[in-house]
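Form 7-S
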Amino acid sequence: MFTPQRANVEAILPALDIPPEIAAALRAGAWAVFNLSGGKDSSAALFAVNLALDGMGHPRARRMAVHADLGRAEWDSTPDTVARIARASGIKLTVRRRASGDLFARWEQRFAAGKARYEALETYNLIGPWSSSALRFCTSEQKAQVLGPYLARTLAGSTIIQIIGIRRDESAARSKTLDWKPDTRFVKPGNRAGTTMMVWHPIADWSTEQVFALHDQLGIELHEAYRCYGSTRLSCRFCVLQSQADSKASAAAPANRPAFLHLVDLEARSTFSFQPGRWLADTAPQLLPASLTADVVRAKHDADARRGLEAGMPPELRFCKGWPPRMPTPSEADRIAAARAPILRRHHLVDRFATGPAVRRRFAELMAAQAA
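Output:
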């Protein structure tokens, strides 16, 4: 177990102000649960908070670490790195995984479901496979929905403080991060078991330099993504929010090549770029076999064609809550049928509503089902 001398650590440890609500819960025996990803920020939060909790007399028996394993999306070294970091801190680690498949499977499932809905004219535009900044199901389904219910069930009747190492200077979105907040996603207030959940971001105000300095001073292991490949942040091997520089760093790791080829293949099959306006294939084109390079060229052409076709469909009929909003006119229905036909062919789907009248009949069915 890693036990640095407290006096030496306090000299280099940035300020760690514990919010009164968090401090009160900890003194009353709350569980401190560290969310570990293998990245520098989660490790910094683990070691910094551990020292603070030791100082206030919080029992180590009421602390645990959890890791949500994203399967093929993770760097090969991430599971062992997380395990070594937890072991060095002296905190017991629990690893959980999504029962219905890893993140790669989820992206495949999303695209298959999107094609089925498009074929059935239940959506107006073809839906791509990828998560995004506006739709982060990669985080919500693969992490929060895996860990949250597990903790609520395992630690029922307790106050549970999830400690998450995110910082305000990481992005515009994270600049609004609160120091702490109640978490009612997995337990309702006043529930029969008496379980309470909270989220605490103890290093929200730290800088990147402070995080790396703590690792250096305490000898905390850094993931190979930083050490060997120069990544600025650790996430999945390839992340929909990743900078181009970090994508290139990840592609430089030989162990990441199968994942790279898998995702580029899905780009080519789906005709959707991994990030809006940025194809993962362009990150390291030298790694692609000739056949996949040709598939990507076709996919980019077909993506442009799809966007052009969908732009020609009536904009006021685009998907919205309670869709469809109204019946298309006969001429609008003709345009919808004409735009859908080549997209359906491209994805080997059946054109079940190939004419304007067929489109109008389908809209009538959907509107009747909605009214019912």
